[in-house]
Amino acid sequence: MTDFSSVLSQAVQEGDDKKVVQLVKEALAESLPAIDILEKGLVHGVQALGQLFKDRQVYLPEILISTRAMNRGLEELQPYLAGADIHKKGIIVLGTVEGDLHDIGKNLVGMMLRSNGFNVVDMGVDVSADSFASAVKESNADIVAMSGLLTTTVTYFPTVIGRLEKAGLKNRVRVMIGGAPVTRGLADSIGAEGFAEDCASAVDEATRLMALVEREGLDEYLA
Ligand code: B1M
């Protein structure tokens, strides 16, 4: 990594949005490729922070502040990325399930996924099974990611999975769930392939699920 990239990555990790914007502007003025500024600076910073979060060296407020700083940098960079070959890791339909209005955790998960190269279709809160299914169809999603914070609403996860099955979409997507009362055991018991405890591990889990999607696509192709 160049000095410049590491300074930018560090500024993201420190959540210093003014410095991030200034560094992105300087890099653009020096004609550094926008894609390098994105991947080696901004994305590197947020990924490093994700690791620190997993190691319990930083906490949610830092993640929030850093993703905001990264997004400010991204705003500066966006016009220069238009023609660039950004490797999108996969399309994820994300939402908090019907009956549930909690969105702070879901938004953090969305930010981390976006910052790490996923294309996220955020459906908001109180999302019905029909809306999830329509969004999957329209966006040609790879993953459906559902958040639930109430013990009374996590019971809606299987309803969504059932709706995807009924619409013939379940074999095309992988389902991932999360939220304070959610466990891997719940995921296993309802046929959701993915579970993540927090926004940093959500990135790892989505990456793992994408490998499954790609592997199965390959298997189908070879069959
Ligand atoms: Co509510 N609420 N709330 N609430 N609320 C809880 C969840 C509760 C535990 C509080 C309590 O009683 N101690 C309790 C649930 C009890 C239960 O079901 N067992 C509760 C209740 C009862 C309610 C109401 C019913 C209260 C009432 O009206 N009587 C009501 C329900 C409204 C509704 O949804 N229909 C209600 C309302 C609200 C507010 C609107 C006031 C507000 C939400 C504001 C908002 O989100 N915009 C609110 C809040 C803020 C909370 C607490 C205090 C904080 C939740 C939060 O944002 N945490 C919460 C108590 C608590 O957790 N201490 C509580 C921070 C956030 C970053 O964490 O969302 O867990 P979290 O997300 C984490 C992980 O879970 C994970 O990653 C995130 C970041 O690392 N994760 C995923 C989340 N989604 C994921 C998806 C993934 C992967 C990981 O993949 C798809």
CATH topology of the largest domain: Rossmann fold
Sequence of strands across the biggest β-sheet: 2-1-3-4-5
Sheet/helix structural class: alpha/beta
Beta-strand residue percentage: 5-15%
What is the subunit arrangement here?
A: single chain
Cα distance spanning the termini: 42 Å
| Run of helices and strands | HHHHEHEHEHEHEH
Helical coverage, percent range: 55-70%
Task: Specify the number of helices.
Answer: 9
For the report, how would you describe the main beta sheet? 5 strands, parallel
The number of distinct structural domains comes to: 2
* Low-pLDDT windows of residues: none
Ligands and ions found: CO-5-methoxybenzimidazolylcobamide
Give the integer mean of the pLDDT values.
90
Q: How do you describe this structure in short?
A:
The protein has 223 residues and is of the alpha/beta class. It has helices spanning 3-14, 17-29, 34-54, 60-81, 104-115, 129-139, 157-166, 184-190, 199-222, and strands at residues 91-96, 119-122, 143-147, 174-178, 194-195.
